[in-house]
Amino acid sequence: MRLGAYPCKIIDNTKTAKAYGEKNISERHRHRYEFNNEYRDLLTDKGLVIAGTSPDDLLVEII
Q1: What's the number of domains the chain is made of?
Q2: 8, 18, 30, 47: which has the highest count of C-beta atoms within 10 A?
């Protein structure tokens, strides 16, 4: 379970970047769900926009 505030790196040229106006934010979490990175390339190739990730790029935070 992810609980509490976690850093998030905003990807340039996304609606999220325009909305936040910052490159790094902190978002509060309280959930047990995660994006399955096994599908990351497949979904982004089909048009899914990943707008925010963990600072190490391992976790998708915003789509």
Answers
A1: 1
A2: 8
